[in-house]
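FIELD: query
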Amino acid sequence: MPGPDQGLPLILLTGGTGYVGGRLIPLLEKQRAALRCLARDPDKLRSQTQPATEIVAADVLDARALDRALQGVHTAYYLVHLMSGSKDFEQQDREAASLFASAARGNGVRRIIYLGGLGDDDDPGLSPHLRSRHEVGRILRQSGVETVEFRASMIIGAGSLSFELMKSLTERLPVLLCPRWLRTPTQPIAVDDVLAYLMAAKDLPAGESKIFEIGCPGVTTYGDLIREYARQRGLTRWLISLPVLTPYLSGLWLALVTPSRYEVGRHLVEGLKNPMVVHDRSALKTFSIVPMDAAEAIRRAILETQQPRGPS
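FIELD: result
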């Protein structure tokens, strides 16, 4: 499969219909490169891409389709998460990453850029969601293709599932009966900062595979994020700690306000018991990006929610 313009480096984006991928597309389209987007349903992307952007129909679990999609690709963004599509998402994530890694290696891809999750690899209680995110990164690195893996906690931005869960709970429940995980330390990150890191990664000098932990400057808790959101919205909210609420029961609780996204939300909630903080600060030395703090990220997300973006 030839690239759209043989004179330009070809970038492949997977996960273009997702939250981060969808916001990355217009940024990549402004670069001096050719862009190819992989999608199971191309029609979902056609309305949000420029005419020069190539869209190919392919499933990440289809080895032949992946091989065709990766032909001629210089840099590939792997932003695939299979939590919403299957209860056995760990196995499917493993298979998809293995097939993608093999196709990337076979086609001479120079670099894979991957967005995963924070969390301690040595934590025996790591949630299935975070465990799978780390395993995918490991599979991509073991391919032999240089892989730049970013590990992030909660992404704060209008439309982000994690942010929307927090927003829904805070807006709808004046009294929140809170499980212990609301005291779990975390370092969220603004979606604009995530996008800045993903864009900068493609221009790094060639080298070995790397893992970068990214987050806002300070450590906070999920409870403090709820309080900050309520403060900025002028809401009075009471958080009452009830340790009997397990992460699983918390998922059922979240389903009361977000029933259409329950399955993915439950997997995310299961990971909230795991501390997600930045231990390795090498991203701050490698990239000229200064992440905003959580309060500013929330302020921007609220502003965008109130004033939706126009067409890109």
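FIELD: remark
The CA atoms of residues 48 and 312 lie 8 Å apart.
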